[in-house]
Structures are given as structure tokens and as C-alpha cells.
Amino acid sequence: MKPARIITALFIAALTGSCSNNKYATSNRSYRQQSKAFANELKKQPAAVDSAAMAAQWVGTTNFGMRKPNFVIIHHTAQTACDTTLKTFTSPRTQVSAHYVICKDGTINHMLNDYLRAWHAGNSKWGNVTDVNSVSIGIELDNNGFEPFSEAQINSLLNVLKKLKKDNNIPTANFIGHADIAPKRKVDPNKYFPWQQLAGNGFGYWYGDTAKVILPEHFNAIQALRIIGYDTRDTVAAIRAFKLHFVQQDSLPRLTDGDRKIIYDLYKKY
To answer: Distance between CA 141 and CA 120 in Å, rounded?
Structure first.
């Protein structure tokens, strides 16, 4: 066999071997097929149809771009290992996914193109946004829901957030948790999540020295929570979600004067 053919044969064998050793080869192939189908759909020019129903002709504009995400939603996986979550997100029957999964050791798994719509937020609401999946990036942190997050994991998260914020010009206020947008259903990320550390790096807001805060006479804390973004139709759930984010040492669904001062300080930032 000629040297060139030997090299080619060895390359093909190595490529075949690497594919066979990849336990996610099947889901990766499915990802490529679905992405190709979406790309083909985007390339289509709408056919000329009855002008009484739609436009008479297709006129392609020269001025357009990709739709970019405007929110980042942070979750914990509520599972026992990163591999378990990756398996869950690569199984068609689960119908759930995220753009990123970050393991306890800091390993970052990028599972979906940032411009595509992941299924991570579910039935949720933030401000006037009711289809959070369509405007957000979902990040899952490997955590069972009852334990602190590792330093390596948070460092990797901060690196991902820094890039996402820069690439998509995501506002500081729009880095929030799953519990914030779905207070009746979710509690992730858990009470150990370092929201203050994230805010210190420009991802989300935090409050200042509340000892200096003077509440207005008729301040409405629930209305302020609604302005911040919380769905306050269930006030108990909204208060719990707020505390899980900002007053993690107190889970009682009631507002103290200290809580109201925190809300007022945050409200002014929004």
C-alpha cells in the first residue's frame, strides 16, 4: 500500500474509533441533523401566495441579523452527577435542555448554540416576559439542591457569564434564577448560591447598606417586587423567591422591615 493511502486509512480508522468511543455520538448526530433542518428552513423564500391572505411577493430585506438572548437564567440540576444531567438533556423523551451545564469540577459543557431556543424555563414570567425560553440562555449547575457550589464551578460560571454579557450586551439586571421567574414551581439555584458574588462581578443587582435606607411613608413592597420583575399574583411565592435570592438566611414567607428596606433599595435600581 502506498504511504499516502496508509496515512488516509489510519486517519479514517482513528476518526471512526474516536466516534465509536464518544458516548454522545448519537445525540451529537441528532443535534447536527436538527440544526441543518433549521438552517434549511431559514434559507427558504416564502412562496408567492394569494395577496388577500398574505403579501403578494417575497422581497428580501438587506437589513437583518440573528436574534440575541437578553436574559440569563441560572439553575441547579437537582441531580447527583454531571453525567446524569447530560444524559437527561440528550434524551428526546425528557423534552428539557439548557445551553450550558457546568460540573462541580468546573468543566463547562456547551450543549446548544446560544442563538437557539433551549427548553429550560418552562411556565415562567419575569416582568412582562411570558416566553422566557425565547429570550434567554439557560445555565445548569451540577448540584443536588442541598449543597454549596464549588469554587471551581462558580469561577467557570463567571467566565461564561462574562462572555455572554459581552457578546449579547445583556443588561446587568437580567441575570436571574429559575426560582425568580417561576416562584410557585422552582427553588433553584438553592440558598447556597452566591448571588452577591455574581452581582459584585456585574451579573445581577445587589442591595447596599440598608441601615441608611429610609422607607417612604406609603411604600408598597409587593408592588415594588412586581416592578423588579417578580410575578406577584401569588404574593407568598413571590416573597419566598425574593428571599431565596436576597435574604437566604430567612425562608419565612413574610416581610420584615429589613426585607422592605432591601426591596426598596433594589427597586430604585430598577
So the answer is: 13
Considering only the C-alpha atoms of the chain, give the largest distance between any 2 of them, rounded to a whole number of Å. Answer: 90
Task: Give the residue among 83, 172, 180 at the shortest CA–CA distance from 129.
Answer: 180
**Per-residue pLDDT tens for 59-103?**
778 888 888 999 999 999 999 999 999 999 999 999 999 999 999
Beta bridge partners of 138: 73
**Pairing, β 175-177 against β 100-102:** unpaired
The larger pLDDT score, comparing residue 16 to residue 128, is at: 128
Per-residue pLDDT tens digits for 129-167: 999 999 999 999 999 999 999 999 999 999 999 999 999
**pLDDT at residue 30, as a whole number:** 86
Assign a CATH topology to domain 67-206.
Lysozyme-like (3.40.80)
> Structural domain boundaries of the chain?
67-206, 207-270
Q: Distance between terminal CA atoms of the chain?
A: 71
245 CB-near residues (< 8 Å, 6+ apart): 176, 177, 179, 180, 195
Angle, vertex CA 160, rays to CA 157 and CA 164, nearest 5: 135
CA 243 → CA 24, 179, 195, distances in Å?
A: 39, 10, 12
Asked if 140 is an active-site residue, the reply is: yes
Catalytic residue among 41, 140, 147, 151: 140
**What are 16-24's contacts with CB under 8 Å, separation 24+?**
24/86, 24/90
Tell me the pLDDT tens digit for each residue of 31-68. Answer: 888 888 888 877 777 665 444 455 667 777 888 888 89
pLDDT grade for 4, boundaries at 50, 70 and 90:
very low
